[in-house]
Write a structure and sequence with these properties.
The complex is a heterodimer.
Chain A (H helix, E strand, L loop, with lengths): L1 H44 L3
Chain B lengths: L20 H7 L2 H17 L6 H25 L1 H4 L17 H22 L2 H22 L6 H5 L1 H15 L4 H24 L1 H7 L4 H4 L2 H20 L9 H23 L9 H28 L1
Helix pairs in contact in B: 1-3, 2-3, 2-8, 2-14, 3-5, 3-6, 3-8, 5-6, 6-8, 8-9, 9-12, 9-14, 12-13, 13-14
Classes of the chains: A mainly alpha, B mainly alpha.
Amino acid sequence: MAGVTQNHLDQEEIRRRQRSRSRVTALLLAAIVILFFAISIVKIATGQ
Amino acid sequence: MKMSDRMTTTVLTHPAMPAEWRDFLALTKPRVMTLVVFTALCGLLAAPTAIHPVLGFTAILCVTLGAGAAGALNQWYEADIDALMTRTAGRPLPAGRMDRQSALHFAVGLAVFSVVLMGLAINLLAAAILTASILFYVLVYTMWLKPRTPQNIVIGGAAGAFPPLIGWAAATGRIDLLPVLLFALVFLWTPPHFWALSLFVRTDYAKAGVPMLPVVAGPRVTRQWIFLYSVPMAVVAIAPWPLGLTGLFYGVAATVLNALFLILAARVGLSRVVDQAAMTAERALFRYSILYLFLIFSALVADRWWLG
């Protein structure tokens, strides 16, 4: 019974960490998209 | 003891839990990165050619990511040694919070991304120097020199000297005398900075078998070398002024900052303290050396932008 409970807690902790990492990854990807867009605008505007 | 002898199973290959995102951040050595990023920014701002703010931000971001990648690769390679030192035992890999494969994949991905982005968005010269700095830090310093010679920090310190060169190259697309002098300044600053630290943590390095100078040659020789490296460092730091590369403000600031550095280095040179906990001169020099680098690069930028 205790083993089942511990396994359940471990699974919860794994899912929590996965969700946390997914959120951070999504934010970073969004930041990269914005950065690439800004760089493209600057390059076009300066004729490079 | 060879590095291969220390490759035990103290570091996890596949932990039960996925690592937290904070541990990936910790892999990049954020505190060390601050100085790297700052000197790169100063190199970029001190350049005679203006760069668009978005591209300037991108260049500094690439340097940041590249430095983080180099730090992560260093931690991946030295995980077993880090487990033996009090100062580093809490890092993600020796503490078992992350597996080696995840750390390696993260580090290599970050390095490739930083170089490719620098090359595409800025210029190939800055990307090439960034690549060289990452490879130098990982291959030459971490893997080759650090476990073999007490002069490891002398040559390996070049890795930390690249950022102002990268910043200048990002802005101008070329290398001039001033960034070369800045490279030499950081190169010569690195041994006194790290040897001052290693004097009051030398038992940690001794436990891990790392041949830092205080461990191999003893405190007396190390203190002499700290002062000896400080002298050419001061000369190189002040040189831009008489060479006409900077104005009076930088010249005066550099003279004052270096005079204080030499005084503190002389105190270390004359010190005979054996107890690491009582090494006040060494701790004072280490703390000042960090402030010194920030102030001298700040003076360079102030001289260029507001007083030049």
